[in-house]
UniProtKB/TrEMBL annotation:
Subunit architecture: Homodimer.
Pathway: One-carbon metabolism; tetrahydrofolate interconversion
Organism: Mahella australiensis (strain DSM 15567 / CIP 107919 / 50-1 BON)
Domain Tetrahydrofolate dehydrogenase/cyclohydrolase NAD(P)-binding: 140-280
Residue ranges annotated for the Tetrahydrofolate dehydrogenase/cyclohydrolase catalytic domain, each copy included: 6-121
Tree of life domain: Bacteria
Protein name (database record): Bifunctional protein FolD
Binding site for NADP(+): 166-168, 232
Family according to the record: Belongs to the tetrahydrofolate dehydrogenase/cyclohydrolase family.
EC number from the UniProt entry: 1.5.1.5, 3.5.4.9
GO molecular function per UniProt: methenyltetrahydrofolate cyclohydrolase activity; methylenetetrahydrofolate dehydrogenase (NADP+) activity
Keywords, ordered alphabetically: Amino-acid biosynthesis, Histidine biosynthesis, Hydrolase, Methionine biosynthesis, Multifunctional enzyme, NADP, One-carbon metabolism, Oxidoreductase, Purine biosynthesis
CDD domains for this protein: NAD_bind_m-THF_DH_Cyclohyd
Length: 284
């Protein structure tokens, strides 16, 4: 018994099939493939895995990709020089600088120097502003994937109580705006929220993106609700979500697993954004 599992892996592969088709059509029409540059600074093992997965995903769907692996001691200027070069390169439609950057580098400055037209992560202030204003721009990959996963349940978002736990610029804030755009009533909770449980218990849609393993237990979940777990923390070698899966799945109506939920969707949305970038830069 218990919740239906939202299979992010299966939904991802269906969308990747469509993207592959679209890339083939673009190649036939233009003789070119969309191109993505991924920049990784330092040797964080988790980042290495993500970057390799992104590279593989690009290959699968026919997106051209370049990966720049820069040493830990790369200077701010060296990183900015690379970003500027990539901004100018015709064959590169999307640029992603893997976060977090080493402490001596200023993320905000680096993100601001990526051309907003190539900002497939949707982290540039221009794209964040467009999202807030309801203008067309790049939507961050994880939030975009989350909305796709919620819609896959056929639960109508309109008028529902959505509670987002976490207020990062990468997930919490943008997913809150997307849910608001879908006409949910949105509450944003965070580490200073007084009574977290009182909020999560009322959530028809619960999105958890805190990086605190097993923060949300079954007693904090509303019966029948949609629970989206964004956390992927390695605990004793095992990838662990922010939601205690075993107890939450007895209460929720739908729930995403970790792994195999939000993670694969993030990469799929990156592929989608890269194709979008190419189509718009090629003026198709
Ligand atoms: N500029 C930038 N853009 C990002 O999108 C970005 C980033 N920096 N920094 C790190 C986070 C994290 N992130 C994930 C992507 C895929 C999985 C993923 O595919 N996870 C698999 C499991 C992978 C594994 O086994 O480790 C899953 O959940 O099933 C997870 C996490 C993207 N991020």
């Amino acid at each position: 018994m218990g919740a239906q599992i939202i299979d992010g892996k299966a939904i991802s592969s269906a969308i990747r099939q469509q993207i592959k088709q679209q890339v083939m059509e673009l190649q036939q029409k233009t003789g070119k493939s969309p191109g993505l540059a991924v920049v990784l600074v330092g040797e964080d093992p988790a980042s290495q895995i993500y970057v390799r997965n992104k590279e593989k995903a690009c290959q699968e769907v026919g997106i051209y990709s370049e990966v720049y692996r820069l040493p830990q001691e790369t200077s701010q200027q060296q990183l900015l020089d690379l970003v500027h070069q990539l901004n100018e390169r015709q064959e590169i439609n999307g640029i992603l600088v893997q976060l977090p950057l080493p402490d001596h580098l200023d993320e905000m400055t680096v993100l601001r120097d990526i051309s907003p037209d190539k900002d497939v992560d949707g982290f540039h202030a221009v794209n964040a502003g467009k999202l807030l204003n309801g203008e067309k721009g790049f939507v961050p990959c994880t939030p975009k994937g989350i909305i796709t996963l919620i819609k896959s349940t056929n639960v109508d978002i309109k008028g529902k109580d959505a509670v987002v736990v976490g207020r990062s610029n990468i997930v919490g804030k943008p997913v809150s705006i997307l849910l608001l755009n879908e006409n949910a009533t949105v509450t944003i909770c965070h580490s200073k929220t007084a009574d977290l449980k009182s909020h999560t218990q009322r959530a028809d849609i619960l999105v958890v993106a805190t990086g605190k393993p097993n923060l949300i237990t079954g007693d904090m979940v509303k019966p029948g609700s949609v629970v989206i777990d964004v956390g992927t923390t390695r605990v004793e070698g095992k990838l662990t979500g922010d939601v205690h899966f075993a107890s939450a799945k007895e209460v929720a109506g739908w729930i995403t697993p970790v792994p195999g939920g939000v993670g694969p969707m993030t990469i799929t949305m990156l592929l989608q954004n890269t194709v979008e970038a190419a189509v718009s830069q090629w003026k198709l």
